[in-house]
Write a structure and sequence with these properties.
The protein is mainly β. Helices cover 11% and strands 43% of the residues.
């Protein structure tokens, strides 16, 4: 009897010391693009260019893993891939990027300096011009800055990194696009239409070099 009581006491003590872990929540992830399906040295098929020839700026590279490299020399070319989904189902967007060189004097608030070392666009439907959220690695603006493009108030800019962030090193990002859209536009978002990428240096007449990989959406 005493042995049984001792065993029960030990069991209770063990439970108190090491409570059961909660069941892991299901995290749903969908790949937007990891660039691994493309051959090195090519332009990613299925991505459309705006502002010029995308293949002159964006190239698939491989060094143990595959990524997209952007080398913008006094140029401003955006590429985008149609990727429609519901933000209520997948509110989060995640990716990895690396900046090699910042555009000299880039400041996204003004037309004469409006260059970004790296940017990820979330593009929404629009009757005349689509709403956009542009997440940027800025050359000068403080992290956390939100503003709008000097070219269109329908493009909202969110600064995630800047010149004080580590260069030449992969950095992981995860943003709540759903909450950002409501905060920036003041109403519920429609579905996402496309995801875009841009490194540009036309206004500053300089150079921006960055790399991108593993773009994905997730529910948590």
């Amino acid at each position: 009897m005493r042995t049984a009581m001792t065993a029960i006491s030990i069991t209770i003590l063990f439970i108190l010391m090491y409570p059961a872990l909660p069941a892991a929540e299901d995290v749903a992830i969908k790949q937007v693009e990891d660039f691994s399906r493309f051959a090195p040295g090519t332009f990613p098929d299925g991505w459309k260019s705006r502002g010029g020839d995308g293949s002159s700026v964006y190239t698939i590279r491989s060094n143990h893993e595959t990524y997209l490299e952007a080398k913008a020399i006094k140029s401003a070319v955006t590429i985008a891939r149609k990727f429609e989904y519901d933000l209520n189902e997948y509110p989060y967007l995640a990716w990895e990027w690396k900046v090699i060189e910042l555009p000299e004097g880039g400041d996204e608030r003004y037309k004469k300096t409006g260059d970004s070392a790296a940017a990820i666009y979330v593009i929404f439907p629009g009757r005349f011009r689509p709403d956009n959220i542009k997440y940027v690695w800025s050359a000068s603006l403080p992290i956390g800055t939100t503003t709008h493009s000097p070219y269109s108030s329908k493009t909202k800019i969110v600064v995630l990194r800047n010149r004080f962030s580590p260069l030449r090193r992969w950095v992981s990002e995860k943003v709540n696009v759903y909450q950002d859209y409501k905060r920036l536009f003041g109403h519920e978002p429609e579905h996402v239409k496309a995801i875009g990428i841009m490194s540009d240096a036309d206004n500053t007449k300089s150079k921006a070099i960055a790399q991108y990989k593993n773009i994905r959406i997730m529910n948590k």
